[in-house]
Amino acid sequence: MIIDFGTYFSNGWRYYEASTIPLSWSAAKYECRRKGMNLVSIETREEDEFIRQHLFVNYPNEHFWTSGNDVFQEGFYYWDSTGNAVGPYRNWAPTHPVASTLYNCIVYSRGADLRWAIASCSDQYRFICEQSY
């Protein structure tokens, strides 16, 4: 299956592609890797603000998967694409993250001003792939 990616955008050291269709977290991860990319990992405030601004302008009513999750150890969030722990920069929505074995994957949440929330990894959302130059 060919996935039509939406917009391409770049901050000068990485480029990103926002999907046009929703997938589960694992399917989104697969599609990014199929393209030689990874689900996005947010490492700095500047990167987060850059991505959020793009989403606000182009997709104000959508959720987007990141590579963040705590699948292997409840409460320990890491970026799947890098293997690094989430932090020191974090941009959680109010009341997130919550301790739950049902919600393990980090999403940009439209209902939380596009801050990070956790959701069930089987939910279907759009996603952002990234690749360094």
From TrEMBL:
Thylakoid as a keyword? no
The record's keywords, sorted A to Z, are:
Lectin
Keyword Nucleotide-binding included in the entry's annotation: no
Signal peptide stretch? none
What Gene3D superfamilies is this protein classified in? Mannose-Binding Protein A, subunit A
Q: Which PROSITE patterns match?
A: C_TYPE_LECTIN_2 (PS50041)
InterPro entries noted in UniProt: C-type_lectin-like, C-type_lectin-like/link_sf, CLec_Tetranectin-domain, CTDL_fold
The molecular function terms in GO held by this entry are: carbohydrate binding
Which ranges carry the C-type lectin domain? 10-130
What name does UniProt use for this protein? C-type lectin domain-containing protein
